[in-house]
Amino acid sequence: MSRRLGLLFVGSVALASLNACGGDDTGAAEAAVDTAAPVTEVAVTNPPATEAAPVTEAPIVLRILVTNDDGVGADGIDAIVQGLLTLENVEVTVVAPLENQSGTGGKTTDGELVVTDTTTKSGYPAKAVAGFPADSIVWAIDQGGIDFVPDLVVSGINSGQNYSSEIIPFSGTVGAARAAAARGIPALALSQGLGELLDFPSGVAAGLAWIESNVAALLDDEGAIDSFTNINIPTCAPGTTIRGTVEVPVASLNGSDYDTQDCASTTEATSDVTGFQSGFVTVSQLPVTGAPFTD
Predict the structure, then answer these.
(1) SS (H, E, C) 116-131
(2) What digits encode the pLDDT tens for the residues 175-192?
């Protein structure tokens, strides 16, 4: 913003001349004396301009809707909510099934849904939907349960892996994510591999890493989308650790044991099946419609 500077100008100062007269008997000549004080100029001063304080724009907030298929009181959804709250500039809203709805895929309920106020296990405010995982999205988006369109829907963290062409069509975790993507909302499904003690911290870390890597795209995303992201995180046996993260296509199990998770393996990851079973976090893209799998 331009600012105007004041200008001070002082003109000349003059003193009028003084005349003095005197006389005697012989008519002595008059003496006249003119005096003038010198002009004193006052310097023009320009005070330094005061710079306007920089305008600070408010940060853009990433609005995340969280759901799952294990029920609003499950450990996995509580873990990811607590993890999301550690990120800067996020708003987290929880709308999830009232009870465990594992294995219900993308089923929905006809008519109005019954929704009650509740909290997650750690006490974070939530809405409990008496219905399927996809019903959480129907109520939130179609029936106006929330007054905004999320920048991202996170479904999970599920207790148990959801990988391969055999299992994903039946997954409520994936079903909720697909329902969001079908409405043009970017979605992320998170599933933690089964084990004696599910390694939810690794699942949280994988989810947060994906969000932080994609936050710019999530904030800029508009319009219809044709896919969403499915992440499976192994629960490694004691003494072994996750080997890394790989982006891979979805494949068939082809007779493999669904529960296999060998973080000590040296097998290379070529699909979500070989990747997950060999100890990798697998990141796969699933289409909103049509056949989602390749062998």
Answers:
(1) EEEECCCCCEEEEECC
(2) 999 999 999 999 999 999
